[in-house]
Design brief:
By secondary structure, this protein is mainly alpha-helical. 74% of the residues lie in helices and 0% in strands.
Length: 250
């Protein structure tokens, strides 16, 4: 039995499905508790129903991006594991990038043909360990942070403009994107690399189209005040980028 067949086995579906089901039950419990709390404080039932309907409606299309991530990773990591990661705590951009980076360091291609049991174990471990720090830090510092937000602690007057955390996050994201774009350019110039397409410029074209699409969504959201598009920007950019890859590759 191949590694990919084992990753798509009934045992993997049972383990991952049980965890996803548990999280779904927890979400349902919170929905019911929020509904009861809303009624207890006298909120209008009709408004609560509209809020729930709107939230459900606007959660459908952004989830397309998550589905694309599951499909993209299923060819190398099977369906259950990406389904679990992207359903519970994972983020679309994080999961795909960490999986790709880990595979490259192991000297593997992120594909079912070259995947090994040891390679999957390493990739799965990195995908889990690298993202768990948010939960740990929130457990340790969450109460103190919430006290500051609620005014329970002494908070210094915040200066106008972005905070250091915002600037650091932006700088980190720009650096990460630059590193990937640099690797694409290097692969194109050298005619070799992880893509194994001699002289291929497909990744650069996909990156450019996706970036332009995201810029278009941002412009419509901020300048045209179409705030509802913000939740669809990632999924829309991914779809246009993937369509570009299909058109070039076809």
């Amino acid at each position: 039995m191949s590694v990919l067949s084992q990753l798509n086995s009934g045992t993997m579906y049972l383990i991952c499905g049980a965890i996803v089901a548990f999280v779904a039950v927890v979400c349902l419990v919170f929905i019911l508790r929020a509904w009861k709390a809303g009624k207890a404080i006298g909120m209008d039932v009709a408004r609560m129903k509209r809020a729930m309907t709107a939230s459900a409606t606007f959660s459908v299309l952004p989830s397309v991006g998550i589905l694309l991530g599951v499909i993209a990773l299923s060819g190398s990591l099977g369906i259950p594991w990406p389904w679990l990661r992207l359903s519970v705590i994972g983020a679309l951009h994080y999961e795909t990038q960490v999986a790709q980076a880990a595979a490259e360091q192991l000297g593997l291609q992120l594909s079912g043909e070259s995947m090994t049991a040891g390679g999957f174990s390493t990739i799965a471990l990195l995908m889990s360990v690298c993202i768990m720090w948010g939960m740990i830090l929130m457990t340790v510092f969450g109460k103190r942070y919430l006290d500051k937000l609620s005014g329970g602690g002494k908070v210094k007057a915040r200066k106008e403009g972005p905070s250091f955390a915002d600037a650091a996050m932006t700088a980190m994201f720009v650096g990460m994107v630059s590193a990937y774009i640099g690797s694409y350019i290097g692969s194109y110039v050298s005619g070799a690399g992880v893509f194994q397409f001699r002289g291929s410029w497909t990744p650069l074209a996909v990156a450019a189209v996706a970036a332009l699409a995201m810029a278009g969504f941002t412009w419509l959201t901020e300048k045209k005040h179409l705030e509802w598009l913000e939740g669809f920007s990632i999924a829309g950019s991914m779809l246009l980028g993937m369509l570009t890859a299909v058109l070039i590759g076809g």
